[in-house]
Structure formats: structure tokens, C-alpha cells
Design goal:
The complex is a heterodimer.
Chain A (H helix, E strand, L loop, with lengths): L2 E10 L8 E11 L4 E5 L6 H9 L6 E5 L5 E4 L11 H8 L7 H7 L15 H14 L4 E5 L7 H18 L2 E5 L3 H7 L2 E6 L4 E7 L8
Parallel strand pairs in A: 3-7, 3-8, 5-6, 6-7
Antiparallel strand pairs in A: 1-2, 1-4, 8-9
Helix pairs in contact in A: 2-3, 2-4, 3-4
Chain B lengths: L2 H5 L4 H21 L7 H13 L2 H33 L1 H16 L2 H12 L3 H25 L3 H9 L4 H39 L4 H10 L3 H31 L4
Helix pairs in contact in B: 3-11, 4-5, 4-7, 4-9, 4-10, 5-7, 6-7, 6-9, 7-9, 9-10, 9-11, 10-11
The chains are: A alpha/beta, B mainly alpha.
Amino acid sequence: MTMRILIQRKVFPARAQAPAHIVFERFSLDLAEGEICAIVGPSGIGKTSLLHIVAGLDNDFSGSVEGRPRGIGYVFQQPRLLPWRTARQNLQLVIPDCPERAGDWLAQVGLAGSENVYPQRLSLGMARRVSLARALAVEPKLLLLDEPFSALDEATAKSMQDLVSAQLKRLRPTTLLVTHHWHEAAALADRVITLDGSPARIVDDRSIRPARAAE
Amino acid sequence: MRAADIRSGGSWQAIASVLLFIGLWQIGAVFADSRLLPGPAAVLASLIGEARNGALFHHLGITLARVGVSFTVAMVIGAALGIALGLWRPLDRWLNPWLVILLNVPALVVIILTYIWLGLVETALLVAVALNKIPNVAVTLREGARALDRDYAEVAQVYRLSPWMTLRNVIVPQLAPYLLGAARNGLALIWKIVLVVELLGRSNGVGFQLQSYFQLFDVPRVIAYAAAFIACVLLIELLLFAPLDRRMEAWRR
């Protein structure tokens, strides 16, 4: 089922010194089931806001998101691990039916041995990997990745990309990947859209390979 | 004894300071040579005497039960009210002035009015104590609820955690320091108020005993009851609050 994102208007209200700002106006984006779409564009243009709207976390806009699949995995820009739960417990929380799989997922992101470590004792890169494992562990139908490989060293970023790529092939979730790096987009996505302007609009929309769903 | 020392299971400085105090007290008592300032030995003798005839445990038990019930009622109502005020701004706008008023009404006025309106009964005591404490708990928990991190709530929402899982794993851990702070302050305040309420309108409990021995000018027994009660509160701190505190702090760097 195609997911249809239609944003008539999304405004950031005026705050302190900053005036009100229209982020999106008459913005639409259709995503085919299983499509992997990368979003690139300058900082502050509204990429993260778009992911929040798609995830259903931001309902303060006029418009709609139709066909949103149930079962979302979200790698936030910051890892957002619950600091009072260990790495393993953070995963177990989202897979209560099969908590024993938490250890496997941590091993897959290279964190075997760190299962009982609290997030504050993890480096940012390690915390990001736990966050990625959490998003994949739920076997999502909709995967939202907000700069998932930032704060990782080159080798780890490559191995995480390979892991994500393998899981995308296995699970085939509809995916939105926000990135600043074309090589990440090219490595993972079927389609790359470029946002620019204020309000943000799609200035480039190109397929870079046939959608996996159609393979 | 400082709370931090108690939390860390005590320290030699804390023990030394208590021993030093007892030494100074003994010296002061010897020099004063007055029945108004008995020494530690006289107080200990009174304590043992009251324990042997059973009066100490009888009255201490009654007071502890009153403290326990009032504390529980005040914590439950105060926490629920505080969280509601923190999360729901219109309710806060309506009730905030009353909270400020109740925070500043003298405890004695609440106690007297409660006894007048409800009579010299057990319920009046519990109501008076709880009314004195609920605003403090509510204000503390209101701050806690205001400080809840929206980022974690969004994680719970995205991953569709059940309300119970969200409460247990996301909300309570964030409120825990506020709950523990309110509980510590609450216990300290409540047992003092319970003694006053007992003194004014009950015929048993540590407060009643203190009043009786005050009228007899039996200072050793007054200090003995106070010391016994302080020992109980310290035990609660050591056996309940300190372990809870350590458990809560385990995740911090």
C-alpha cells in the first residue's frame, strides 16, 4: 500500500527572538510499499520535522499521512536510549514478546559484551548502534532513519550500512533515510529526493535503482 | 549525620561526630548539675525503664502507625495531584493559588480546626497531618512532572509501549528522584506534626507521652522518647531510603 504524505501547512510558531516560520506548504510525497527513499537537503530545512510527522509524533499541521504502516522503527538524531535501562533492557522493552533476541541484535551491531552497560557509559557511536538495533529489532514495516551513521567512525559506519542494507532486503520496510551524505543515499536508497527553499519543497526527485519491492 | 553519609552507609566522621556530641553532652551535664539537663546515662536509664515496662513500645508503635498511614495518604494524594498539575496547565492555573495558601497556613491552625470540625478522633489526626503534607508533595511532584523529557515519551509512542510499560519504564524513573525527595522531606515533617497533633488531642502516642513528662518536668524521659523516635526514623532512612537511593543512582555515571 502506498503511503501518502500530504502537508498543507506546517508552521513553527514564533519563539523568543525567532519569528513564526512556515516549514512546509502544499507539500506531498508518495512512498510505495517497501520503497527506500533518502532525503537530502540543507540543515534546518525540515527533514527531521518530516520524519516526526510521518511517525505520527507531530500532529500540529494541516494535512494527512495516509497508509502509514503499523510497526515503526525510528533511529532518532540523538539515540534517545532510556538512561536508566541497560542496553539490553532498552531493546527488550520494544520486543516484549521475544526479549531473548535483544542479545543477538546487540551482537549484530558489534556490542556483544556491552549488554548490561547503561547508556551513559556508552560512547555516542555505541549508543547510536543500540538505537539502530532497537529500530531493526521490532522488524518494522516503516523504518525512519535520521542520520543514522553520524558519530560513527568510517569502518563502523560501513559495517552498520551493510547491516541496514541486509535488513532492508530481509524485512523490506518502507524507509525514509535522512542523510547529508550522497554515498549513504546511493548505497541504501532506491530513490533520492532533495529538499530546498522556505517553505521546503522537493527540488529533485530521482530513482537511482528499481524499487526492491518491484524486484 | 549528613544524608550523604547515611546514603553511603555511614562514615567514621559521622560516627565520630555523634560520639563527640555525646561526650560534650556528658561534660555539659556534669558541669550544669541540674535535673533540667540530664546526662546521656540518665537518659539511657529512662529509655531502658520505659522499654522494660512496655510503655515505650506501646506509644512508639502507635505513633509509628499514625506516621505510616498519614505518610502514605499524603504521598499518594500529593503525588497524584502534583503530577496532574504538572501535566495539565489549566488545572495548575486553578489550583496553584490554593496550593500556595495551604503551603503557608500554619500547621497548628490546620490541626486546631480539624479537631474542632471532626472532633478529637483518630480520623482528625490523619486528616490534619495529611493536609499539612499534601501541598509539599504536590509542589515537588509538579516540578517532576514538568521536567518529564518529551523525547522519551516519543520513544514510548513510536514503539507503542503499553500505558503500564510507559509508566514503569519511562515516567516513574524520571519522577523517582522527586518522589524520594518528597518522601524524605515528608517523613521528617510528618513525624513532627504527628507529635504535635498527639500532644494536642490524643491520649496515647509519643506526643502524648512527651506532654505528660513535660508536665512532670521529667526531662530524661522527654529526651528518651525523642531519641527513640529519632532512632526509628534513622533506621527507616538506612533500611528503606538509602537502598532505594542507591538503586536509583545505579545508572548514573
